[in-house]
Amino acid sequence: MKVFKFGGASLKNSQGFHNVASIIKEHSKEPLLVVVSAIGKTTNALERVVALAQAKKDYQSVLLEIHHQHKQIIIELKLEADTINQYLETIMHTIAIKAEAAGEYDFIYDQVVSQGEILSSALLFSFIQSKNFSVQWIDARNYIYTDETYREGKVNWSQAQASIKSLNEILQKKIIITQGFIGGSTHNTTTTLGREGSDFSAAIFATCLNAKSVTIWKDVPGVMSADPKRLKNAVVFDELPYQEAAEMTYYGASVIHPKTIKPLANANIPLWVKNFDDPSLPGTIIHDCKIDKLPPLIVFKDNQCLISCRVTDYSFVNEPQMNTIFEILSQRDVRVNVMQNSAISFSFCVDFREPKISLLIEALSKKFEVYYNTDLTLITVKNYDVATFHEYRTMPGVILEQSSRSTLQVLVKS
Ligand code: ASP
Ligand code: MG
Hints:
VC0802-like, binds magnesium ion, eight-stranded mixed β-sheet
């Protein structure tokens, strides 16, 4: 069997749905499980709904926008007579109720934001069914079990495996359509796996079903040496070793979610990245292979915050002090992207995610003199050559630089 994943960009309008349906049709001869993300920018919109509703502000216009976009697709796909039409209203109602509920923010967030995938998968299901395909919708929350770390659910692999395996029987007869990004806790609450987590969902289903391959359908021709929107001369890789792809995602390449590679590599399941606009393009295969010389690979990670902790008593930064910093980071579950120390300060760069980072700075300020800068971009050049090494080190606005034998990183003002 195979697993396909379609992201929000491939389902942003009715044309996208037609396109996805034709790709599914093309591959429907063998067992297929399809994982989908929310339509277009629905997840961002739902995040705004939660933020506004929890701040007791008006969120109706954002909700209407979501409603309008889905309704438009339903009309254009001629599904108005279908139950999906009523389902849309039900989900809109659910979103409003859940967004206004009292409770811990991250919990509320997951209950609301997950509805984007519930809707997109139901819509795709209705459309595929209207084309007389043998298809079944399943609720990923009954298969991808996680703990109760809301917004960052940790998968309970043994429980997930046990339930996902049971899908094999359905797959013999039907195409399965399900949601990416969302999971369920053992207490029957909805969790999410972290933003852009649908790729990871596809990897979880694939691993537990021992799939032949996973294909992530994207708006790019494959995995590229840089984001083509930023660098015109970016090239597409035909193939990449798992390790290389995993490192790219670690540095912030957004083509694949960082957690996707590991389970697939462990199970030796190849991961294809293919273009949904032109499925005839070869795409990139990430698998067990060796490549002698890869071109420089450039990753941009925006919205970075550089934090410097200075000791206040004229002593030098020592290990116990670094230990204090790392303990605070680890307690608050903040990942460091680059770090550097000098005689009297220890600096590190993190994703600027609020309110997490303000709280982190507050905690560090109790022990150190803390300085920070936001609006930074971390650029990583992996497998640099002479030209790229020079180019990125000398670019304007560099405030921190670090290099190893194979990798250069510069932090620049955005
Ligand atoms: N819809 C979710 C997000 O935008 C999950 C995903 O797209 O993978 O983060
Ligand atoms: Mg998305």
